[in-house]
Task: structure prediction
Amino acid sequence: MIEYREDLRRELEALKKKAETIFKRAGRVGAIDLPLQRQGVERSPSRIVRPSGPLSELVPGQPVEAAGRGVFYRVLAGAEAIWQDTLALHREYLDALANPFQLEAAGLEPLLALKDLRPEEVCYLDLETTGLSMAPLFLVGLMYTDGDRLVVDQFFARDYTEEPAVLGFTGSFLERFRALVTFNGFRFDVPFLHERMTIAGIEFAEPGIHVDLLPIARKLLKKRTPDHKLQTLESFLCRRKRIGDMPGSEIPDVYHEFVRSGDAADIAAVFHHNRLDLLTMVQLVTIFLANTGEP
Result:
């Protein structure tokens, strides 16, 4: 048993070293701070005081009309404007997709589907909702390759009445992609979208390929990490730790408060939380695909 545990420890260390090699440049190893905090946000042991203001000021975007379903708020930006050295990260992701993939580790088989697609055909998805079931969805976060750029695209319902517009636009927008990448999307994100779209009377044609990174991480890492939560993998494999992130358990209440008050102080942090989740998924795919050719 001791020898077995020692083998697992060595395997995890080897995977960590690969992650460090991929993401060793400045800005990718260490702590990721929220942009809001770099704008002079006060810290205290119990809470973070974020700057107040309207959504348009703290999270620049624009209203978009979703054909026949009303208006929602769209935030579209190049990822290089959000994270340091993202251009290099994106190049390494593209290289990982293009390079030969020797299937050395059990559990990586689903990633083979991504190797047969153009990068522009792959979309990463993460939802922010007000509950786990039969509750409104308010933010759809997407990340995808657009030409030579990695972009983040977020569809936001500024109040409960805008959810159908977000859902309708999401359903139409995802039709351009052949593959969807999620984290726990088999059990949560995609069933949740189906549920909310059914309630809204919207048909949802899921992309033909769906790669869920959570089962892959479980099979690959087993008990070599304390758990398989996204931020745990972010810490162990991407070697990053978030500072001042919005806890997921607080996100529903943050949204309800935004709808009530219109103050975007905390909802801006939710936007960034969503962006970091998407970034971590792209990094994990890069790391997993680089796990080839070595014992």
Q: What stands out?
A: Residues 265-289 form the longest helix (25 residues). Residues 50-217+246-289 form a domain with the Nucleotidyltransferase; domain 5 fold (CATH 3.30.420). The two ends are 21 Å apart (CA to CA). Confidence is low (pLDDT under 50) at residues 1-5, 22-46.
